[in-house]
Amino acid sequence: MTQAAPIRRVLDHRPPALLDIALGLAARAVPTLPLRAGKLPFGNCRLCADNACGGRPVMKTAGPCICPGVCHGWAAATTDTHTLTSPLWARAWTQAQAVAYHPGGAGLTVVDLDNADAVAWARQCLPATRTVPTTRGEHWIYRGAMQSANAVRPGVDIKSYMAYARWLGPGTGTMAVLPDAVRGLVVKMPSPVRPITAPAPAGGGECPHRVPAYLARGIAMAEQRINEATSAVHTTVYRTFLAVLSAHGQCGCLTDAHVGRLFAAAQAKGETVRHCTDAWTNALTRLGL
Fold this sequence. Notes:
The protein is α+β, with helices and mostly antiparallel strands. The protein has nine helices and ten strands.
């Protein structure tokens, strides 16, 4: 027997082993998907390439379109064994290097601690829960789902809805309920925005935008517009910010609470705090504020 024969047998058994892991997770109602080299999801199929099927998913659960392939990243995750073992997925499993799962779809949240400092912070500030060792740190897994966000603090990402996490084993410890301390990491105020000085209204009267109902309606409409976006979320967020600033940016009636509501709506759609801040700043710049 040649030296290469045992290696070939190991490689031949690798895809079924990963598929067995995925099927085991699916049996426990954990949506899974294969990852290729670099811990990356497989690219969309030809029918879904370049958002031909209607754009990236914006819902919190999987199933963005009728395509049965391994498409749309985290949204491809499934618990359907027929899909996992279908011919359309066979090639992906052959090339797969790891298994991932959609935490939000399983009602879970993963606090991804990327280095020793982040792990030390979690041990000091977060309730103990199930932990899974990673290459550079740990995954802390809680019962309960929330919006995902990257870089909520140095070395810390939140993976739940609209995200995937690599499966690295069941971990150790008792899984705790998702605490407010973790939820609070995502509800962050935007970076300070340059104050807007209100010009004196003509005739010395009070600014009409300060009428509570007018402003409240405007903010609520802006939140609804972001919430209802089904594609081009980046563009929708920017245009919504631009519309709000066009109407209320020069009278000084916007408060940090109003801006925080808009940012929260955008983050619920998967936008990061950085993307929100960039969109807000770009809108200010375009309006000359």
